[in-house]
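Assess the record.
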Amino acid sequence: MTNIIESSRDYTKQDIFRMTHNSESIKNIPEGEFLTVAGWAVLEKTREPEECDSGEVVTQRILIIETVDIEGKHGYIATQSDVVYRELMDIWEAFVVDAVGDGDTVEVCHVLGTSKSGRTFHNIRVV
């Protein structure tokens, strides 16, 4: 079962289906790639015991970023990263929330960072 916890706009059931079935992991996006963000949704996905290796109910929080390319085609990027979530919320609030009209977008760039412990993490930066 999938529920929207929060989102930049109202998404239909068909939108949610596309988001959950057609999304690309942010890990597969090349570093330095520019993305035009048209919206986002935070989904809570519950997997039943028979769907999980552990045999327990598992709830995942997934951020889906809606992108649009130069031809107007929409794509979806998924991540469970709190770092990306916090950065996107800051960017969205600064550049889009008070903007007038539908179809507002913001340009971001996918970047990689290294934590103090030496692990690589994904993030986005405003262009």
Q: What stands out?
A: The first strand starts at residue 2 and ends at 7.
